Structure formats: C-alpha cells, structure tokens
Amino acid sequence: MLAIAGGKGGSGKTTTTLGLARAIDGPTLAVDADCDLPNLHALAGVPRDCPPNGPGHPDPTAPSETRVVPAPRDLPEGLGDRLRHLRAHDSHLALVDCPAGAGPDATVPLRIADRALLVSTACVAGLRDAAKTAAMARAVGTSVVGAVVTRARIAPPGVDDLLGCPVVATVPDAPDPLADPDVRGAYQRLARTLRHQPKT
Q: Where do the segments described as Disordered lie (predicted)?
C-alpha cells in the first residue's frame, strides 16, 4: 500500500493517485482516504457510493485492472478499518489519496501504508508542508520513497534535502492533466521508477 501524501490541498495528490494507478502495469486500486473533501471519484468519473468493503468501481478510462474506491460517507473513524481490510484482502496494489494537513485523519493512512510518496507544487509553502508530512510518515514508521513536484518541468534546487528523499518525478502543468500526453508520460516514468525501487 502506497500513501500519496502532502501537506496542502490542491497540490496534485488526487491527480497523482489516479494518474499513477492508471500508469502502473498490473492491478491497482485508487483509494480516496479524504472523508471531508473527497474528489477522487469525481476525477475518475465513478459513483460516490460503493459497498463498505467492496472492490470499488472499474475506472472507466483505464485498463480493466484499475479500480476506484471512493471515501466512505461515515466519519473518518471507519477509514482505518477499511484500509486494513483492503490491504489484507485485495491483491491489487493500493494507492491511497491522503487528506491534506497534519491532523489525525492524515495520519491514519500514513500509519497503515507500507510506503509514502510525497506530492507538492514547487512553491515554498507547499514544500515546507510536504516536509512536515514526511516527518509524520517517518514518525509512524512509514518510509518515504520519494517526492513528486507537480505543475513543474524541473524541481527547485534543494528539494531533496528539504524533504529528505529524492524527487522521483516532475509533472508539467496542463489544463486537463490526465488527458495530457506529457502528464501521462510523467506518470508512466514514475511508475517505472517506483517499480525498480527496492522494497523497504
């Protein structure tokens, strides 16, 4: 299970979750863990509701092995159980779109995931918040495998040092990112990079 995490809303976590899930060669789940501001289902074009421990909805514009699991409508207290169930009973690689911020809701998926991938725009405030997210992940024992800088062709200097991990992808800005060939190419390269990383 890979947590797609970052400190700020609007940094590109949801787009990265779905874009990477579609780019990975093999069965994937794109899971929305943001109960307060869920939007993964809308981005993917699937219904908001699904059975509590169901397999999610087939992604209508991706390979049949990609499924989308909307955030539960109940309070976030049930989120941990849902993520543990998916981790234990589903053979798909789960990519979890984490809530922004540093509160308990953001900590739950970080604690359950095997690894975390940071997502931030290139702005200073966003990168500082991503560094706080990295510290949260490490505090609960989850390794941070890298960072994705969105809406940028190159990463600003010093980002690796600030976040304590390598920048493994940059994703260019686009009006309709998941339909843009350059953005899709960036997520395909990211998928290959993560596939060749040693498991930690």
A: 46-77
